[in-house]
Amino acid sequence: MGAAVIIWLIGMIIFFFFLYLVVQSAIDNTTMAGNIQEIKDLLQEMKSSRVQAASQQNDENTPADLETAAYEDCPACGNRVRVTDKTCPDCGLTLHSDSEN
Ligand SMILES: [Zn+2]
């Protein structure tokens, strides 16, 4: 009789110990998942800000390639035209008036 109670008690202790472990690991998983999500968001933010900074740098600095630097997009049709062209060869839009420079 006494031995059975002790075995039952040990069984209950083991059961609650495992229950505790399961609950603890579940809590750890949720907090871990939240942390990972936070890290992901942070990395994405850093990446997007870095891309923005890079694109801004590209906008400020004229491209090093002279071939591309000598060209620009027509504001009307988007056709690639030479900077030296006064009119767009595609749509005929006046790109640079003579009075300018
Ligand atoms: Zn054009």
TrEMBL record:
Highest taxon of source: Bacteria
Keywords carried by this UniProt record: Membrane, Transmembrane, Transmembrane helix
Regions crossing the membrane: 6-23
Protein name from the UniProt record: Zinc ribbon domain-containing protein
Organism: Cohnella candidum
Lineage: Bacteria, Bacillati, Bacillota, Bacilli, Bacillales
